[in-house]
Amino acid sequence: MTYGGTIAAIAGKDFVLVGVTHGAALGRSFMISRRGAKRMFKLYDRILVAYTGLYGGFQHVNSMLETYLKADYYKYKIVPTVKRVSSTLSAILYSDRFKFPNPIEAIVAGFNPDRSGPELYVVGSLGELIPEKYAATGDGFEIALAVLESQYKEDLSLEEAKKILYSALKTAAARVMTNDPYLEPEVDYVKRPRDNFTFSEAFSFRLLVL
Amino acid sequence: MSRFGDQAVGYDKTTSMFSPDGRIIQLEYARVAMRRGLLTIAIVTKEAVILGGLIPLSKLLLPAEKIYQIDDHIAAAYAGYTADGRVLINKARDIAYQNRLIFGEEIDVYTLAEELSDYMQQYTQYGGVRPFGVGIFIGGYDIYGPRAVFVDPGGTIFGIRAYCVGRDDEKVIKLLKERYDPEISYDDALKLAVEGLVLAMKEEDKRKEKKKTEYESGVSHERVLIVRIDKEGVKRIPEDDIKKIIESLGGDSE
């Protein structure tokens, strides 16, 4: 079983910034067994979802999430808000509450279709859903969170926030053995969309546009 | 002659019983229900699938949906009893998403049709249910290119090149037979589809039966809905383009 990775995020004024460290370790071992492990996903160009924990767990959970969202989109013409994405994720995780829970955690951050936001949620392995301004979770979260805690302030610019997030992840990767210290952390962001989402563009052949 | 007097009486009460001459009469009634629906048409060309249909138009009601997107690369349209159709559409979507969840890739058109027809066939073999009163067209662009199928109320799958079902379909099928050729270009196929739909509207107008309802009759580009399914996905053909084609055919588009 492959575990590992630290994830961290900062919600700024007009952006959200999400970063992950690379690598997945075999169990809780000293060895980074997988370097290509992808743990951050972008939805609709305005929401970022990052996972940490059991790799097989969140890979499956993420494909379930994407399937649910697609069904919402085509069946009910629903374009999800950040809250809806994280609640769906939370419901998926909670549904395994009494079976074998997925040992994973996730950060969901981004903007809503009406351009409101940013919103940032931490979703825990048993379905807990907690809104935050900045967050870190995963194997190196103590270290990453310490860096964020000491440097975060309101009204950070994107460049400042990038620097803080980068150093938080780099510090965690340097000291926590399930993170890959030789690969640079991956940091991605989304900015507030310029236009409101309009239904006509998404459902170009649906006549029922109100 | 059966002891019911009329052969149809008795054997048409259930789908779980054959008539002495080997027919399931309820199923034939379901096909009649299907062909009462507004015309739906599909044409496959080398680059794309064209899926089109007529929609009822009323001053009082919002325009109905006729063509439904199933997944990124697949759309479906049905002729017949609308309430039955939308159940099948949602079933088709579930099948497509399940394929994505398990295999991590898009479903192909025939797999979707197989699964959907399994579901439809169940309603022709068990008691207490009636068959779906719709025929459903599924068009998509998968790894084999553009493909389309038609599934009838009994659950039979027909792979199609060009086909239509609905009111006045005999006349439109005749038109398709004359004009369709496997090498047909996309533009010609689009024209052919519009021509077929216009023909159906004209036939309907001749009978004037529509005048009694709240729905508008007559040839109008607003009643025509066509989508194109190609490598890029599903796209609606703009109303203006359809209007232009109808005008070039010499029809009077309002």
Give the topology.
The complex is a heterodimer of chains A (210) and B (254).
Chain A: E1 2-3, E2 6-11, E3 15-20, E4 24-26, E5 32-34, E6 40-43, E7 47-53, H1 55-76, H2 82-95, E8 104-110, E9 119-123, E10 129-131, E11 134-138, H3 141-151, H4 158-175, E12 186-191, H5 199-202
Antiparallel strand pairs in A: 1-4, 2-3, 2-11, 3-12, 4-5, 6-7, 7-8, 8-9, 9-10
Helix pairs in contact in A: 1-2, 3-4
Chain B: H1 8-11, H2 25-36, E1 40-44, E2 49-54, E3 67-71, E4 74-80, H3 82-103, H4 109-122, E5 134-142, E6 145-151, E7 157-159, E8 162-165, H5 169-179, H6 186-207, E9 224-230, E10 233-236, H7 239-248
Antiparallel strand pairs in B: 1-2, 1-8, 2-9, 3-4, 4-5, 5-6, 6-7, 9-10
Protein model, in words:
The complex is a heterodimer of chains A (210) and B (254). Chain A has 210 residues and is an alpha+beta fold. Chain A has a single domain (2-189), classed as Glutamine Phosphoribosylpyrophosphate, subunit 1, domain 1 (4-Layer Sandwich). Chain A has five helices and twelve strands. Chain A has helices at 55-76, 82-95, 141-151, 158-175, 199-202, and strands spanning 2-3, 6-11, 15-20, 24-26, 32-34, 40-43, 47-53, 104-110, 119-123, 129-131, 134-138, 186-191. The longest helix of chain A is centred in the N-terminal third of the chain and has 22 residues, at 55-76. Chain B has one domain (24-246): Aminohydrolase, N-terminal nucleophile (Ntn) domain (Glutamine Phosphoribosylpyrophosphate, subunit 1, domain 1). Chain B has helices at residues 8-11, 25-36, 82-103, 109-122, 169-179, 186-207, 239-248, and strands at residues 40-44, 49-54, 67-71, 74-80, 134-142, 145-151, 157-159, 162-165, 224-230, 233-236.
